[in-house]
Amino acid sequence: MTASFAMTQLIAAGGAAGLAFTYWALRSIGFATRTALVRLIALNTSVYMVFAMISWLAAGLALLDPDVPLGASVPWLVAVPLIFLAARWFTADVRVGRWTDPDGGRIRDALAVGVGAAAWVRRAIGSDEGRPLFGWALVYWLGDLISLGAALLAFRENPGPIALTVAYTTGYLAQSVPIPLIATGGVDAATTFTLTMVGVPLEAALLGVVTHRIFAFWLPIGPGLWSAVSLTRRARRGEGLIGSPAPSL
Question: Which of 20, 66, 171, 231 could form a disulfide with 191 if both were Cys (CB 3.0 to 4.6 A apart)?
């Protein structure tokens, strides 16, 4: 995953490079094409499901915080439950088999992959083998939030944990700006302005976000690139990436 992270940071196009590298890794350890696609989407869905839950919880608590405008919290409170309900409906046992059937053209095949990924996530939640994934995703998001909060404290700004979380999650929704070597620059710009939304001065918000970028994004690029090169060399030598594929759940 560090290799995928590095690819996402170095190459623009909305994180496509990181997704492509993860897909290649899944294929290299023996997953079939469609299974690799399902697993790729499922892994990302798992990570962003935790993100959505953090966003929803922070938005609910933000209703008690006068520094957070309703326009930043209410959309989370409405959208997240609707998405979860839709996913639950599509992946119900009585209909998941029908929706994951790829027969019927490209659109139906794409839908089948998406529903299959959602179904995998639902199984992972109830599986001892899959559940740790969500814990590690939580660690990632909390670590990123702590990094941003510490960066702001360095410039004597402390918006509070709830306001910080709402500003962070709202800014993170921004699409990446296609600038080489700043693949998530759009998120940085959006986070800067969402921090001003909760009362952080623009100058401090910008400095805090840039500092956060150094520690949370640029420093891991070195180990990530080393992992990417190492994995690629091992695959070329026919050694495989790991001993065996991950559990199918």
Answer: 171
pLDDT digits (tens, 9 = 90+) for 117-150: 999 999 999 888 888 999 999 999 999 999 999 9
CA triple 219-224-229, angle to 5 deg: 140
Question: Which range of residues forms the domain containing residue 193?
Answer: 2-236
In a domain, 248, yes or no: no
How many domains does the chain fold into?
A: 1
Whether 36 is covered by a domain: the verdict is yes
Determine the Cα–Cα distance for residues 56 and 39; give it in Å rounded to an integer.
25
| Closest C-alpha among 179, 164, 198 to residue 68 | 198
Closest alpha carbon to 124 in 26, 25, 48, 43? 43
In a domain, 144, yes or no: yes
Whole-model pTM: value is 0.81
The DSSP-derived string for 103-151 is -S-HHHHHHHHHHHHHHHHHHHHT-TTTHHHHHHHHHHHHHHHHHHHHH
Q: Vertex 231, ends 229 and 234: CA angle to 5°?
A: 110
